[in-house]
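Input record, target 12 of the design panel.
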């Protein structure tokens, strides 16, 4: 099974404000690149299971069965972007 990012995740990844921890952001980036859910759940010495569950619960990830529509990209593009932060 694959998971995909939602418009909420797209906004969180693109914004200059880091509302998510590094591990959460990493999982979202991997999900964008079509990493299988089983792989995501095994990350971070087993902590990936909890992080994936939290991201699903909070609306940052959705099952691939929830089809991404063109509205997904439009919603993400409509959000104003913040200045990137220096890391």
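The sequence produced for target 12 reads:
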């Amino acid at each position: 099974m694959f998971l995909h990012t939602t418009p909420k995740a797209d906004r969180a990844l693109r914004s200059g404000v880091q509302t998510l921890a590094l591990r959460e952001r990493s999982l979202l980036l991997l999900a964008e690149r079509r990493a299988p859910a089983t792989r995501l759940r095994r990350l971070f010495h087993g902590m990936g299971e909890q992080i994936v569950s939290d991201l699903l619960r909070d609306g940052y990830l959705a099952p691939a069965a929830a089809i991404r529509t063109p509205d997904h990209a439009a919603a993400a593009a409509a959000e104003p972007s913040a200045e990137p932060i220096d890391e």
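The mean pLDDT is 75.
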